[in-house]
Structure formats: structure tokens, C-alpha cells
Amino acid sequence: MENKYLLECLNNLNFYKNEKGQQFRVNYAALSVEEFGSVYEGLLEFKPVIQKTNGKYEYSFGRGDERSKSGSHYTPDELVQPLIKHSLDYIIEDRLKEKDKEKALLSITVLDISCGSGHILLNAARRIAIELAKARSGEDQPNPSEYRKALKDVIKNCIYGVDKNPLAVELCKVALWLESHIPGEPLNFLDHKIKCGDSIVGLAHKEELEKGIPTEAFNTLPCDDKDIASELRKINNSEIKARERKQIGIKFKEEIDKEIKIFQGNLMRSHHFLNQLLKKSN
Prior knowledge:
Blueprint: H1 3-14, E1 15-17, E2 23-25, H2 35-44, E3 46-53, E4 56-63, H3 66-70, H4 77-87, H5 89-96, H6 101-106, E5 110-112, H7 119-137, H8 144-158, E6 159-163, H9 166-180, E7 194-196, H10 206-211, H11 226-281
Parallel strand pairs: 5-6, 6-7
Antiparallel strand pairs: 1-2, 3-4
Helix pairs in contact: 4-7, 7-8
């Protein structure tokens, strides 16, 4: 890559022009962590487009449908604050009643199964961290360093998130990392807490796994390959039948064992009764 393209990229990252053509410097210092949500939402509106024009490749943005397909929406602060108040505050109050307040607060688990850029998780972490810093310092207004340390511990011990969009997962990690601001600690300390996955599709209970995959799961959708879906359905049906035969066999064996025990018990009682009769006749 030639230097002029690199310099152009750096210039576009540092400056922008408004509708009147006036150039302004981007003030990253004033950028709030919550603004990652609006950035994420804005990125979903577009998709990268690479075109070849007159032998040269051009990169641009086209209208994307990822936001409408995934149902992704940024949760505004007006909704987040009441959610934290009515779902988390009473749990914190209960934990503060325990003898070891610090341990009790760090035992709280906050999971957002559709975390996006982490707006809800950030506010939950801040709320717990304030109480943790108060408990540690014994002050109603803990100093910033005490609060920062408490926030780091809360994020490491209490905060979990899942999202289907890989970009959202990375933005959430960055937001939490910036908020906790841990000098010298890499971003990957959050890898095991913020995961990319589908929290809706899956198994909630062990019993569901034992029953196997329902046949309805292999119903074809418009974008599915019907031949592959049909073959997978046949394999699944044969596995279900094999599992049912095995369970029937186990139940049958259990019934036989039960009958044998009853028969043995009756036989012992009969033997005891005969011995008593023989003793009386003698």
C-alpha cells in the first residue's frame, strides 16, 4: 500500500466535514463508551461494496439489511436505567445485608443474552461497582481510583454476555475494557465472558438432550437444501427409534428385575410358612 492511501485513511479518521463542507477534528477524548452502540447500529445499516471501475478497484458502502435481518437495535439510556433499577437494585440490597459485603456483591451474576455493544452490561457493572467501592472504602463517595478498581473486579467476576453478531461482541469487549481501563492488561481477559453465539437456539435442559433433536427441527425453510434436510431428517428419525428401543429394553429389564424380587420375596415367605407348619406337626 502506498503512503498516500495510508495518510488518507488517517486523515479521514481524524477529520470530518459537515454538510456545509466545513472540516472538524474528531474529538475522541469526548467520545462516550455508550456511543459504541450508535456506531454499531449505524454500521449495520451499511455493507462494504468493492467495484472495479476502469481497471481500478473502488471501495464504498451500500445499503445493508443486516439490522433488519438480525433485529438489532441500540437500547437507549431511558430504557436501560429503569431496567437496572427494577431488576438489579433489589439483588444488590439483599447482598449488602450479608456479613461479607464484598464477597456477596462479587457473587452476583449479570448475563445479557443479546448484549449488543454492551450498554446494559456497562450500566449493571457501574451500579455494582459503586456499592463495592463503598463497602471497601467505608465512604459514601469513594475516590476515583477505588471505584475504578471495583469496576475492574465487577467486570471480571460478574459480567457475562452473548450476541449473535461478531462485531457486537468485539465492540462489547472494547467498551468494557475501556470502561475498566486496566493498564497493561490485554483485551483477551474478557474472551471467556463475552461470547459470540445464538442464545435462543439451543438446549435449556438436560432432558431435552436425552430426548434428542425433534423431527420438526428439520422442516425445510425457503433457503434450505431440501435433499440435505431430508437426509438429515432420516438420520435423526433412525436415531430416535434406536433410542426408544434402548429405553424400552431398559424398562423391560427393570420390570423383570422387579417381578423377580417380588417372586423371591413370596418364595421366602412361603418357605418360612412351611417351616412353621413342620415345627407344629412335630
